[in-house]
Amino acid sequence: MSKKHLLPNSTIGIIGGGQLGRMMALSAKAMGYRIIVLDPTVDSPAGQVSDEQIVAEYDDRRALRDLATHADVVTYEFENVDYDALADIEKIVWVPQGTELLSITQDRILEKAYLESCNINIAPYAVVVDEEDIREKIKGIGYPAILKTARGGYDGKGQFVLREESDIEAALPLLRYGSCVLEAFIPFEKEISIVVARNGAGQVETFPVSENVHVNNILHTSVVPAKINQDGDEEAHAIAEKLAEYLHLEGVLAVEMFVTKSGALYVNELAPRPHNSGHYTIEACSISQFTQHIRAIVGLPLLKPELLKPAVMVNILGQHVEGVNKAMGSYARWFVHYYGKKEVKRDRKMGHITILTNDTDAVLQDLKETQIWD
Ligand code: AMP
């Protein structure tokens, strides 16, 4: 009973040439697919490992059509792809992730409304459009609260924490980007995330839950398995599976959540693509999030991910490159990944390291002792 799937040598088009596109491309190349990537940067991280790169902006309609006519299937590595442009190419090429998922995940207001409609627990919030609105609605939300732009934010950009009334003034510039979400601050004990995959045949598979630490709103470390109780773990898997089904997902989706002291889970954000907190899957699981994503979009059956060994993943930002380069010769267990970015900039994600271990606390301590991430 074989279902239709794309055969090796078919071409996968990727919108976005960053590290996620690169790791998708590496997985797809291993399976024998051809890759064409669209990105405005010449010799982009994904372009370096692809068969071809179209150098153009993500909303360049003509370039996107060019990508669509040369590809058998098109995927994207980030959610800020131009909606209309994607809808346009959907008429000429198979885009398994579709446009609906994109429209929901690129707008926090729609995303929150969608999560509520699925009966999924989220932080109390209100949509605000001007200063008066903030002053009024914060009465219901209370301090501290977070003001977030509805569109375009990532890694904590487009956010402002309001601790008291006098903070409102400084947060107002965010309204220039349009409507915002005013959200209650959840006093979480842990942040976790889970990657789920679904294919067109309706098969759903989840990856182990990862426990994440952010520094300055940027992911710093992921530890797997997350140290949460069994109920929390089961609930996280159930939420991810439910969303994959409701959204008719084809590809992978990451779900970020907060866990409070009492064990309550709050979904914070969805990412309709492989996720930084799932990089550990490359070495630690029986299948990586990238290979699973490619299998889903080419119409192959999914594998059930198994954790082969607990793992710690740490990001290498621009300011860590020098330290990592000096130290890596002394750490045989470091799986060092670099993304081929030419320009080293502070806070820019340049690579990551995964370490497989039976003692994740000891590894975190070892990483601390290197002082690279101080
Ligand atoms: P986001 O861009 O929504 O993923 O937020 C970036 C980071 O800000 C999260 O990973 C949290 O550490 C923090 N954060 C965002 N929203 C909240 C919230 N409602 N309560 C507490 N912390 C938050």
Automatic annotation (TrEMBL):
Pathway: Purine metabolism; IMP biosynthesis via de novo pathway; 5-amino-1-(5-phospho-D-ribosyl)imidazole-4-carboxylate from 5-amino-1-(5-phospho-D-ribosyl)imidazole (N5-CAIR route): step 1/2. It comes from the Bacteria. This is N5-carboxyaminoimidazole ribonucleotide synthase. It comes from Listeria aquatica FSL S10-1188. GO terms for cellular component: cytosol. The lineage of its organism: Bacteria, Bacillati, Bacillota, Bacilli, Bacillales. It catalyses: 5-amino-1-(5-phospho-beta-D-ribosyl)imidazole + hydrogencarbonate + ATP = 5-carboxyamino-1-(5-phospho-D-ribosyl)imidazole + ADP + phosphate + 2 H(+). GO terms for molecular function: 5-(carboxyamino)imidazole ribonucleotide synthase activity; ATP binding; metal ion binding; phosphoribosylaminoimidazole carboxylase activity. Its EC number is 6.3.4.18. SUPFAM superfamilies: Glutathione synthetase ATP-binding domain-like, PreATP-grasp domain, Rudiment single hybrid motif. GO terms for biological process: 'de novo' IMP biosynthetic process. Belongs to the PurK/PurT family. Catalyzes the ATP-dependent conversion of 5-aminoimidazole ribonucleotide (AIR) and HCO(3)- to N5-carboxyaminoimidazole ribonucleotide (N5-CAIR). Catalyzes the ATP-dependent conversion of 5-aminoimidazole ribonucleotide (AIR) and HCO(3)(-) to N5-carboxyaminoimidazole ribonucleotide (N5-CAIR). PROSITE patterns: ATP_GRASP. The gene is purK. Signal peptide: none annotated. ATP binds at residues 108, 148, 153-159, 183-186, 191, 214, 268-269. Keywords: ATP-binding, Ligase, Lyase, Nucleotide-binding, Purine biosynthesis. InterPro entries: ATP-grasp, ATP-grasp_carboxylate-amine, ATP_grasp_subdomain_1, PreATP-grasp_dom_sf, PurK, PurK_C, PurT/PurK_preATP-grasp, Rudment_hybrid_motif.
